[in-house]
């Protein structure tokens, strides 16, 4: 993969120096970008990787994120066909011919897999759903109806994304790690995970929970308040805590702000999750 990385680095330098743009990019440059997208879809390269055992060891692969940006900077928008409808974009949708042989299925009429999105083996993607360029979805994961998996988001193996879940994208700045949902996580319907937040493995998150670095996580297991991540093996849900602005005259009844409360994953919660997962088998 060293050659691919060097090709992207070279293209980026020329693009950054205003020596190359969508009008001047030729077949050699576009072939390099196509090879890069193929590598993303195959899971051979990723926008971020875990370099250690801790949640804060996720690091962005800056050259990969630059390669994604180049696919917008060096391609021209043109008309394309999908489902009998003409749309206009710089990229086509992802070819899904490889999915069936790997046990992965996606339902029609609204399942949009953009070029450069990786889907592992034995995955399920229900319509309508959208996977953006650079998204990496691990083996055995369920992407339910009305879900969005943003650019560069890293979704682990055997994850359940409940219906109407939003996984935010983090493409720029290139040095910022994207949203990460580690292996075995279950996100309830309507959850939102944004701005590079990391959800630790085997956690179960209640429906309509917002996970973002700006909202505190009250970890009652370790008895500490953390930001930017949910520790592994937690049961998390939204509650409201007193806000400092409650002292203002306009808030006679007090003011509250959202927070996330994290507890141990209880056996009965795990059992219920396993029973639900058994329905897929």
Work out the strand percent.
Answer: 25-35%
Task: Name the poorly predicted regions.
Answer: none
Order of helices and strands: HHEEHEEEEEEEEEEEEEEEEEEEEEEEEH
Instruction: Choose one word for the global shape.
Output: globular
**Structural class, judged by helices and strands?**
alpha/beta
Number of helices: 4
Question: How can the largest sheet be summarized?
Answer: 10 strands, mixed
In whole angstroms, how far apart are the ends? 36 Å
* Strand count: 26
Tell me the helix content: 10-25%
In the sheet with the most strands, the strands line up as 5-8-11-14-17-20-25-26-22-23
Mean pLDDT, nearest integer?
93
Radius of gyration (CA) equals 20 Å
Description:
By secondary structure, the chain is α/β, with parallel strands linked by helices. It is built from 4 helices and 26 strands. It has helices spanning 2-16, 27-42, 62-73, 267-278, and strands at residues 48-50, 58-60, 78-82, 85-89, 105-106, 111-113, 118-119, 124-125, 129-131, 136-137, 142-143, 147-149, 154-155, 160-161, 166-167, 180-181, 186-187, 192-193, 198-199, 204-205, 210-211, 217-219, 224-226, 229-230, 234-242, 256-264. Strands 5-8-11-14-17-20-25-26-22-23 form a 10-stranded mixed sheet, with helices on one face. The chain has a 6-stranded parallel sheet with strand order 6-9-12-15-18-21, with no helix packed on it. A hairpin with a 7-residue loop joins strand 1 (48-50) and strand 2. It is globular and about 65 Å long. The model has no long low-confidence stretch (mean pLDDT 93).
């Amino acid at each position: 993969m060293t050659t691919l990385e060097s090709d992207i680095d070279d293209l980026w330098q020329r693009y950054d120096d205003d020596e190359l743009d969508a009008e001047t990019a030729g077949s050699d440059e576009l072939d390099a970008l196509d090879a890069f997208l193929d590598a993303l879809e195959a899971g051979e390269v990723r926008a971020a990787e875990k370099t250690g055992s801790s949640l804060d060891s996720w690091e962005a692969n800056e050259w990969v994120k630059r390669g994604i940006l180049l696919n917008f900077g060096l391609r021209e928008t043109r008309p394309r066909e999908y489902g009998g409808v003409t749309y206009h974009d710089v990229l086509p949708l992802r070819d899904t011919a490889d999915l069936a042989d790997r046990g992965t299925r996606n339902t029609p009429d609204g399942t949009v897999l953009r070029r450069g999105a990786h889907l592992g083996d034995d995955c399920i993607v229900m319509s309508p759903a959208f996977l953006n360029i650079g998204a990496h979805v691990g083996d055995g994961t369920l992407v339910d109806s009305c879900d969005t998996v943003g650019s560069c988001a890293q979704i682990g193996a055997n994850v359940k994304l409940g219906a109407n879940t939003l996984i935010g994208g983090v493409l720029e700045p290139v040095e910022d790690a994207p949203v990460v949902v580690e292996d075995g996580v279950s996100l309830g319907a309507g959850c939102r995970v944004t701005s590079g937040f990391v959800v630790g493995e085997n956690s179960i998150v209640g429906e309509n929970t917002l996970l973002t670095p700006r909202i505190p996580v009250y970890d009652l297991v370790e008895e500490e308040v953390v930001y930017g991540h949910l520790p592994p093996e937690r049961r998390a849900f939204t509650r409201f805590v007193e806000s400092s602005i409650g002292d203002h005259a306009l808030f006679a009844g007090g003011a509250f702000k959202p927070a996330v409360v994290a507890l141990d994953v209880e056996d009965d919660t795990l059992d219920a999750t396993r029973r639900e997962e058994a329905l897929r088998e």
